[in-house]
Amino acid sequence: MKWSDHDGDVLGAWVAEHDFDRPSEVAAALHRVADLGAWGYCRTDPDVQRAFSVWAAERHGWAVDPSLVTLTVDSIQAVWAATAVLSEPGDGVIITPPVYFPFHLLARDVGREQLDWNLRRDESGRWDLDLDDLRALLARSPNARVLAMCHPHNPTGRVMSAAWLRELVEICADHDVSIVSDEIHADLVYPGTEFTPMLTVPGAAERTIVATSTGKTFAMSGLRCAVAVAGDPAVKQRWDATFGDLLLGRPNRPGMDATIAAWSHGGEWTDGLVAYLDAGRTRLVERLRAEAPAVRFCRPEATYLLWLDVSACGLGEAPAEALLARARVSLSEGSIFGAGGEGHVRLNFGTSHELCDRILDRLVPHLQP
Ligand SMILES: Cc1ncc(COP(=O)(O)O)c(C=O)c1O
Q1: Which domains does the chain have, with CATH numbers?
Q2: CB of 76 closer than 6 A to ligand 1?
Q3: Which one, of 116, 78, 91, lies nearest residue 235 by Cα?
Q4: pLDDT digit string, tens, across residues 291-341
Q5: How far is the CA of 6 from the centre of ligand 1 (A)?
Q6: Which among 6, 200, 218, 273 would be 20 to 30 A from 17, CA to CA?
Q7: Quick check: CB of 178 below 6 Å from ligand 1?
């Protein structure tokens, strides 16, 4: 999709997927399934849960009980299903605009009411979620039952601290609000920032479901295998009682085998990926500051996404559309991420440094006042 949705000369810097080769074990797992002709019915493989549990412990110091992990087809399905499990029709679901655009469909799709907890931007261009804003929102929205967190946050690249998360969970507990934490970008956190999995925060277990997959780290979203991690057995039971075994469908054998391979063998590879992306991030930030000072942005703490305020560059109300036409670079339009996205574009730098340079070479002449 990233490279085929546009004409051949357009450089793709939009959909959140990177372009790097994956660990060889992933392709080997797929070849094995193909060579076996094992394309018929298969059992849901408990090794996926076990592999995730080892991955979570090694990379994030997070002890996951494999029996609390449910397989889903993708992370978004896990977020949607978790929201349905943790709330009732008509309840309020809080999202954090500007946010990964499908979140704007979440409440509508599951028959809930959307409540917005907007990020704020300070003088330096840094985006933040103010806990007092959440308190005020909860005071005027007694029906709020779920907070859908994007953690790390897409598109701003913010990673909230352990102390902040602790306070967040206390507020949620005081207001009987459950948490759905989308942690699909959690492996892509840069040195200097610490990622705290929601389910390691004291008090979170009884009210939280985490959704994640290999999708962002290993660019494997097309293989359709993700996990929903319940914080405790009671939450897991609520999930099982809501959906039974059949309603949500199941991942397929190639997806499961490739996922097991990635989480079992991808540690060193992921270290290399993060180091490479970090160097790319530094280079992009330096170039943008030097060559396009009219663009306001903050260095992302996580993700391979740069959230750029290009409102001073005379690109009109649809700057990504204008840049596609003028620079032949495909970016994501900021407005689709909701309030706060006006005048912004999201740039995906999950590609080679050479290609990042070519992308900037094309964009910079159009990012001037
Ligand atoms: C925050 C976030 N959640 C979920 C997804 C989609 O994940 P999946 O394809 O596993 O549903 C993305 C993809 O960009 C994302 O950025």
Answers
A1: 11-22+268-366 (3.90.1150.10), 35-265 (3.40.640.10)
A2: yes
A3: 78
A4: 999 999 999 999 999 999 999 999 999 999 999 999 999 999 999 999 999
A5: 21
A6: 200
A7: no
